Structure formats: C-alpha cells, structure tokens
Amino acid sequence: MNNEIKTKELIRTSQSWDGVQLPEFPQGKPELTVLRMTFPIGAVTGWHHHTAVNYGIVEQGDLTIVCQDGNERTFHEGEALVEVVGTIHRGENRGKKPVILNMFYFAAPGQVLTIQHPEIQSL
Predict the structure, then answer these.
(1) Residue-number span of the structural domain to which 86 is assigned
(2) pLDDT in tens, the chain (123 residues)
(3) Number of structural domains, the chain?
(4) Does residue 84 form part of some domain?
C-alpha cells in the first residue's frame, strides 16, 4: 500500500484572475472564513463585489465569472481561482451539472465580505 502524501500547488499569485494586483491586507489579526457554495444548473448570482481577498477551488462543474465590463472567465472542475476584489461581477453556472465551489476569505474581524448590487439588472 502506498501511503505517500502528495502535494500539488494549484496557484500562487498576488493577482486576481483578471490580472489586477490584490489589495494590501488590513492591520491586525485576520479573520478567516471558508464558504462552500453550490450553484444549481443555470444559477446566476446577483451582481456583487468583494471587500476582502478571497480564493477558492472549483470542486465540481464549471463556473463562469462575469465582470460588469463584460470581461469573463470560466473555471473548470479542479481549478483554483483568485477572485476580483472591489470589481462588480457575478457567477454563472452555464454547465451541465451543479457547481460546488469552496472559497477562502481573509479579512479584518467582522468585515463584510460581499456587497450586493441589486440596482444592477443586466450587462
């Protein structure tokens, strides 16, 4: 039986997926949050932006992130992604199975991680 632990670095960067440098960390001790999100087939989040550095791994399916300016990218099962911070965007499941996404947030204690923009209706 092979009980060797294998390690594979999925991503190491200081930029979000759109190439923008990540913001500076706030002062003090960070609060870490882990979220698991499940997107049914055809699901679309509302327009929103993040206030904190966050990254994740697509555990299942294909997730498309669309920015308000039309820039978009699809992340596939097993891919790591570094989210945009301060940029209005939404997530879409255009695939053929539910998306399971695990996201990790680094923020100041009590910081709101996501701000919704219900006033934005479409591109």
Answers:
(1) 39-116
(2) 788 989 899 999 999 999 999 998 878 899 999 999 999 999 999 999 999 999 999 999 999 999 999 999 999 999 999 999 999 999 999 999 999 999 999 999 999 999 999 999 765
(3) 1
(4) yes
Instruction: Report the relative pairing of strands 48-50 and 72-76 from DSSP bridges.
Output: unpaired
pTM of the predicted model over 0.85: yes
Kindly compute the dihedral angle of the four CA atoms of residues 10, 14, 16, 17, in this order, to the nearest 10 degrees. Answer: -40
Is residue 82 in some structural domain?
yes
Pair of tokens at residue 27? 């002062």
Two tokens, residue 74? 């699809």
CATH number for position 100? 2.60.120.10
Distances (CA, A) of 37 to 14, 22, 61: 24, 23, 12
